[in-house]
Design goal:
The protein is 35% helix and 27% strand. It is built from eleven helices and eleven strands. It binds L-homoserine.
Amino acid sequence: MMLVSKVPATTANLGVGFDTLGLALKLYNIFEVRVTEPDTPDTIEIVGEGREELIKRENNSFIKAIEYFYRLYNLPIPHLAIKIFSNIPLCRGLGSSASAIVAGLMVGNTLTGKNLSKETLLRYAVELEGHPDNVTPAMFGGCTISLVNNGEILVKKIPFPEEIAVIVAVPQFNVKTEPSRKLIPDCVPLDVTIRGLAKMGIFINSLLTKDLNDLPLILEDELHEPYRAKYIPNYKKIKEEVISRGALGVVISGSGPSMAVLSKIDKVKQLKEDIELILLKNNIESKIFDLEIDNEGALLEVKECIM
Ligand code: HSE
């Protein structure tokens, strides 16, 4: 028997929804797992992004999540043959570790026969990841808003306008989430909080009504972007230029350094070329993806294995 889990990339925060909003994108990591004989050593094969990192067990969030699940239920961890098709760039703010955590928990859940709901698995995923905004859309797909309150998690899916796609510019350099979170102050002045609340509310309203004209202003975050912008040379200038070329909004994806550009679908082709040039002009080499929204979230399939 082989388990195959396919989990989407995610862009967290969406500017004004720090640690709460996230969006699943049609770029996937695929995790294949077979239980092997007790006397055979584990094998790990990585194809694609971040091979050198992920091949080390201690850096591999997928393996850690499987082990976490087994330990939670005091079960012996089986020997596994693992193959990961890693398509989501690592440490770039696109939820590669969230995808691994979600897949690892789903695999653990199936292998142990626990058959827990996705909602329960999400609680474990948030414990492992520390914040919900990547793991929630990775699990459920679409645009999600998550509230973590006394260990309980309330999740709502927000209909995301079909006419919007996301162009993601992934710089060659990486940024780790932990140091990037440490840049953000613990206390926020009241006026900043009030503007943030209003922007979040208007953003949700814009998505629901498809009235997208105010997005450049509404997506202007004051909680984390001002502190993280320093990782991206000329971020403010780049953002202004991309918006002047017709983007609906530009935000730092998750903890960065990728930038997520919201665009009307019919503008994507031209905007993608423009973004590439603008970034090159600012000496930022990057890979640019145009991605539609994933609405399914994490999938797991059990296949018969032909030896
Ligand atoms: N909300 C988290 C952060 C996402 O911005 O730190 C990490 O990808």
